[in-house]
Request: fold
Amino acid sequence: AQSVSQHNHHVILSEAASLELGCNYSYGGTVNLFWYVQYPGQHLQLLLKYFSGDPLVKGIKGFEAEFIKSKFSFNLRKPSVQWSDTAEYFCAVNALASGTYKYIFGTGTRLKVLA
Amino acid sequence: GAGVSQTPSNKVTEKGKYVELRCDPISGHTALYWYRQSLGQGPEFLIYFQGTGAADDSGLPNDRFFAVRPEGSVSTLKIQRTERGDSAVYLCASSALGNEQFFGPGTRLTVL
Reply:
């Protein structure tokens, strides 16, 4: 069965620090990969997505993620975080060849950025 | 519509009662998903529809849960004989199939 692991459950950073959130998935075939963010009191919204092509994808608000197929990873990065990045971040996977378009989400990483 | 809407935003019910949660997706999105999110967890897949049919209902926890999408637009998640363990935020999302999902604000269900 597909699964998604986010190893960092809580991260606290100071403003301007660099961020890297880990995401690993278990599925050997072709995948679509996503990072979603949920700001306090708001809906889940898409940060970025990878379908194919350049494994380094750029999203909104200066976020980027790198797909490393050999490591089954899709880590999220931002060179310099801001207080407004305080939110919960979810990695999600859709395994195309599994016969279904269902998405599997990780348990999330709660990021707190100190001003 | 402008986005995915869900009603009610909050629902408090007693153990054993029946509840219906409604989702109104973005117009034109053929795929509609239901998730359940408990505190400290990510969204847990329940079911998704492609058009009117349930394409994958493997996430429904038991036969007390059922969902319909009779006209390929609005969907209703139905929970019979609610239990305290059903308390969670129920999220709906819609998408053009295989693409990013757009989430609604969720319905917070509390079973007393």
